[in-house]
């Protein structure tokens, strides 16, 4: 935080606290010249205002709140760049800088651990690792074929899925436009346990270039989209689809196969079923052909670690293999 904003926040905070104290003193002191309990000369709708002070217990509660606020701001960060007497931090977000110069975050974090400068977040993570680490280690030592039969492991995997995967695939794992449905048996790269784990560990980077990177003219797009609809069993114009088949043979088969059933080694989708990642209307299919598609799933091995990925793998597999 810059010095300007640090001073701005600090001044505003101090002014508000001081203002609350002054206002409380004024309210409790009879500065009006009217005897306590007497009318202030104001009335509205038959209700008359009297000069009554705040109840003592209420005033003391406000004073205690102000004292608590001052003590808290002295002990903990809250006034701009002031770190507080305890030097407490909630996270290690700023641990990767040294006097405004970026340094290696991993090395800085390791140095903080060695000097016992861990933030509350780091301590809680260390405590959780100490408590739950052996449990996940036992899960990792269990073959996936056995883990998918463990109800408790699947519950753990389900919670991890909700925390980390549901943002894209949905809480019910049925996906949305551009994000695969994990509850059916349609898999771009394969739905066996080993492949699912590989996908989770290393991520996936699906890429279809515009027009497949082929010499397809704009005038061919409509026919090609019609042929794709024919492949999936939809109602189509036979003559237009026949034209599109010629465009398909220019090279689309290199990824999708001569039978258009896709290629799991490349992640190219099966065009003969009625499962669509982005939509199966003529307009959306044409859009996919013209602009291409790029789908990225991040690698989770460095984010969650293999132990947690192992459990999520069992859970994802169970979704389509009841």
Automatic annotation (TrEMBL):
Co-factor note (free text): Binds 2 heme C groups per subunit.
Residues that hold heme c 1 according to the record: 165, 168-169, 297
GO MF, one annotated term: heme binding
Domain of life where this protein originates: Bacteria
CC annotations in GO: plasma membrane
Transmembrane segments: 7-27, 57-76
Family membership: Belongs to the CcoP / FixP family.
Protein name per the record: Cbb3-type cytochrome c oxidase subunit
Lineage: Bacteria, Pseudomonadati, Pseudomonadota, Gammaproteobacteria, Alteromonadales
């Amino acid at each position: 935080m810059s010095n300007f904003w640090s001073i701005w926040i600090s001044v505003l905070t101090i002014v508000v606290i001081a203002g609350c104290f002054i206002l409380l003193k004024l309210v409790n002191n009879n500065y009006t010249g009217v005897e306590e309990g007497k009318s202030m000369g104001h009335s509205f709708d038959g209700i008359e205002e009297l000069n009554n002070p705040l109840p003592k217990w209420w005033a003391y509660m406000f004073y205690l709140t102000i004292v608590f606020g001052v003590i808290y701001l002295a002990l903990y960060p809250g006034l701009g760049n002031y770190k507080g007497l305890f030097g407490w931090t909630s996270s290690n977000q700023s641990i990767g800088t040294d006097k405004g110069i970026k340094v290696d975050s991993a090395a800085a974090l390791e140095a903080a651990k060695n000097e016992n400068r861990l933030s509350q977040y780091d301590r809680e993570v260390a405590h959780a690792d100490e408590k739950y680490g052996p449990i996940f280690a036992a899960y990792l030592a269990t073959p996936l074929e056995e883990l998918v039969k463990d109800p408790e492991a699947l519950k753990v995997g389900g919670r991890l899925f909700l925390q980390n995967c549901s943002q894209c695939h949905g809480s019910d794992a049925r996906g949305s436009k551009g994000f695969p449905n994990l509850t059916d048996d349609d898999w771009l790269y394969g739905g066996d346990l080993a492949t699912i784990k590989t996908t989770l560990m290393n991520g996936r980077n699906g890429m279809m270039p515009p027009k497949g990177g082929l010499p397809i003219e704009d005038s061919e797009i409509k026919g090609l989209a019609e042929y794709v609809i024919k492949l999936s069993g939809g109602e189509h114009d036979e003559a237009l689809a026949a034209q599109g088949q010629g465009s398909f043979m220019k090279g689309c088969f290199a990824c999708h196969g001569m039978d258009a059933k896709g290629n799991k080694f490349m992640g190219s989708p099966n065009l003969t079923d009625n499962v669509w990642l982005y939509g199966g209307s003529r307009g959306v299919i044409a859009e996919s052909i013209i602009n291409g598609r790029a789908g990225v799933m991040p690698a989770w091995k460095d984010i969650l670690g293999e132990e947690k990925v192992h459990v999520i793998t069992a859970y994802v597999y169970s979704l389509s293999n009841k």
